[in-house]
Design goal:
The chain is an alpha+beta fold. A five-stranded antiparallel β-sheet has the order 13-12-11-10-14. It has a four-stranded antiparallel β-sheet with strand order 1-5-9-8. It is elongated and about 65 Å long. Helix content is about 25%, strand content about 30%.
């Protein structure tokens, strides 16, 4: 869904949400994912849980306004849009009235069935994710239990996963700060870990680089030989 939301903005194509019960939201051109499991159409009524959305209708024809004296130009991005949906492994249908329709229930169910791992973000009672854990998808079919923390793995700075470092996660779970509702999408995990590598990995102390010393040869007044001075770079 991250890829789809970014593509809607980049291609400037419009989309609208069809909520369960048949409520149709306005057409908008910008979507964002404020938190995992939610979609927010900017200017379209605030964030909505993906589970509450029946489908998303996409209009691949961009109406581009160039200027007051120039007629509006139309660009058909259907081929690009279909390629993006296929790349993101999102099921869709081509309809006569609404060219492209994404059924949310089918995609959410298929996504859970195909996952090898499920990812969760520990926030420690704060408003942002502090650590990312994963569990084998086949091992979790309901709510967290003590057994899950024995096999849970923690994401490291170098992209590896280690087991046995789940005391903080288990403590947060017992305090009611961390549970199965804190699930993250694989795309979100990738984007957040890349951001952390640039801005600073949570809990990782930054170590100032040790600058090399360089040797400089200088002639000292009153001496016929060179003295070696070691100066900090």
């Amino acid at each position: 869904m991250v890829l789809l939301a970014d593509s809607l903005t980049r291609l400037n194509i419009s989309a609208r949400l069809i909520l369960r019960g048949g409520v149709v939201r306005p057409w908008v051109n910008v979507f964002c994912l404020p938190v995992p499991g939610y979609i927010e159409p900017l200017g379209g009524g605030g964030p909505r849980a993906m589970a509450d959305i029946q489908s998303i209708e996409l209009n691949p024809v961009e109406a581009r306004y160039i200027g007051r004296l120039v007629p509006v130009k139309f660009f058909d991005h259907q081929a690009k849009l279909e390629s993006i949906l296929q790349l993101a492994k999102i099921d869709y249908a081509i309809c006569e009235r609404d060219p492209v329709k994404v059924e949310m229930e089918d995609n959410l169910a298929r996504g859970h069935n195909e996952k090898k791992y499920r990812y969760f973000g520990r926030h420690g009672g704060t408003a942002k994710v502090l650590a990312i854990y994963r569990l084998p998808a086949a091992q979790l079919d309901g709510m967290f239990d003590f057994k899950h923390f024995r096999i849970m793995e923690l994401l490291q700075y170098d992209g590896s996963w280690i087991s046995g470092d789940t005391d903080s996660a288990e403590a947060d779970w017992m305090h009611g700060w961390f549970d199965e509702t804190d699930e993250l999408s694989e795309e979100y995990v990738l984007a957040l870990s890349q951001k952390w590598r640039v801005s600073g990995w949570p809990g990782k102390r930054s170590i100032a680089p040790i600058l090399p010393r360089k040797t400089v040869a200088r002639r000292t007044v009153g001496f016929s030989r060179f003295q070696i001075f070691h100066l900090l770079a």
